[in-house]
């Protein structure tokens, strides 16, 4: 009798944990508004629209980046957080507009820039800033370190995200 009760409890726990992963946190950026977005229901957490870049992984998280946004999955916490936005999916920008390390994940869209902060377990979106995705300057315009993320605005300044201060305009 005890074995059957234990087995039932384990099955319930298994399904509850699985449901947490399937139901990713969902955040909408301003560019993800309108009927075409309202009618989009992802088939699963990995469905980020098409085209989609290859997933990137660090020790703490996995970043999925596609036409309709980005998703970070934390295997240790068994959680997933999505940000819906119109993204940049030219093949030449892959690995620049989407980057990940153990503390931060960067996902740049056409009209906003999002950083996932692992210490806070959520996305922080800088709205109404078009990143400069000029092919010749990708290394200088998209910088991700363990301490900060920095992205250059098209025809404008750099913006820097740190865990302590959030998004700030840079004089650089």
Could you explain the architecture of this structure?
The structure is a single chain. The protein has 172 residues and is of the alpha+beta class. It has one domain. It has three helices and 13 strands; from the N terminus they run H-E-H-E-E-E-E-E-E-E-E-H-E-E-E-E. The strands form three sheets. The protein has a five-stranded mixed beta sheet with strand order 1-5-4-3-2, covered by helices on one side. Strand 7 and strand 8 (112-117) form a beta hairpin. It is globular, with a radius of gyration of 18 Å. Mean pLDDT is 83; it is low at 6-22.
Distance between the termini: 69 Å
Q: Spatial order of the strands in the main sheet?
A: 1-5-4-3-2
Shape: globular
**Portion in strands:** 35-45%
How large is the radius of gyration? 18 Å
Q: Strand pairing plus helix content: what structural class? A: alpha+beta
Which range best describes the helical content: under 10%, 10-25%, 25-40%, 40-55%, 55-70% or over 70%?
Answer: 10-25%
**What is the string of SSEs from the N terminus onward?**
HEHEEEEEEEEHEEEE
Low-confidence stretches: 6-22
- How can the largest sheet be summarized? 5 strands, mixed
Q: Helix count, per DSSP? A: 3
What does the average pLDDT come to? Answer: 83
Number of DSSP E strands: 13
* Number of self-contained structural domains: 1
Tags for this entry?
alpha+beta; 17% helix; globular; 4-stranded antiparallel β-sheet; 172 residues
Describe the structure concisely for a colleague.
By secondary structure, the chain is an alpha+beta fold. The protein is built from three helices and 13 strands; from the N terminus they run αβαββββββββαββββ. 17% of the residues lie in helices and 35% in strands.
